Amino acid sequence: MRRVNFDLDVLRSFVTGMDLGSYARAAERLGRSTSAVSAQMKKLEEQAGTAIFRKSGRNLALTDAGQTMLSYARRLLDLNDEAATALHGADLEGWVRLGLQEDFGEALLPAILGQFARAHPKVRIEARVGRNADLIERIEKGQIDLALTWGQPGMDRASAPYITRIAEVPMCWITAARSDRGDFLTPDDVGARQMNLGDDPLPLVAFEPPCLLRDCATTALDRAGVAWRMAFVSPSLGGLWAATAAGLGVMVRTPIGLPGNLRVFDGGLPALPSLDLNLLGSESEPSDIVRRLADILMASVRDAMPGYLERLHAA
């Protein structure tokens, strides 16, 4: 089989076009003509040996092979950029302070720290896993440099000089995935046996206040006229996961970081809004060190997001 060496410039145009939703905008961003970018996409299909794009109305969409190509293209470009940064940024020295939600701590933190440490071995990084309100307060006080947080009402650049919206993530109702017998529960089982829907108040599992997701859950239930009671309160996400898995109640969270013994529940409870996932910085003009960590963090979250959302769509 003939080996194919994909052109990184072509892959960068491909990924940029998909991110911007237009290859005309990609051409402008990359300083190329639209015809040059079109030629690159034709070259990509020739190198791939299969169709990458398909017609979707007036727009181009990706084939299954195109989706696979996009995933690999991102990884190839990330590795290329990491190598370039390691060679040209190895002399960076100093320290950077990062804050993350518990949802991301186990799933993303090791990869982010590892990638950053390999690229910048002389930079010391301090990481804090905490709750949303605590991280935002620390950004406001300049106690950490970057924080991955949920969007709060009224958040503006007066409290966080640097704000980048990474994604919009749906909130959802979470319940146990298995019964005491170990078999998977159906939505009817959950409703009848675990959630006590009917005349009894809905048992909720939630963080201690203040908590943005707790407020959203109770507001949605109040507006829908659904009675509820607080069945379990904890200061830690691990405690909430355990209580929900034990069937003490339902909780509101996003699909991010959801353990295997829990599931998204879609059984007639009130609809919930989505949350903005933001990257906050304590300085309006981040240093080179902070900017590089921000780039790695945003790329990691965006790469992981499709996998998180699959669990929501499978509910």
UniProtKB/TrEMBL annotation:
PROSITE patterns assigned: HTH_LYSR
Keywords attached to this entry: DNA-binding, Transcription, Transcription regulation
Entry annotated with the keyword NADP: no
- Going by the entry's taxonomy, the superkingdom of the source organism is recorded as Bacteria
Query: Listed GO molecular functions?
Result: DNA binding; DNA-binding transcription factor activity
| Pfam hit, one | LysR_substrate
Q: Which residues form the HTH lysR-type domain?
A: 6-63
Asked whether the UniProt record includes Transcription among its keywords, one would answer yes
According to the UniProt entry, where is the signal peptide?
none
Q: What is this protein called?
A: LysR family transcriptional regulator
What organism is the protein native to? Thalassospira xianhensis MCCC 1A02616
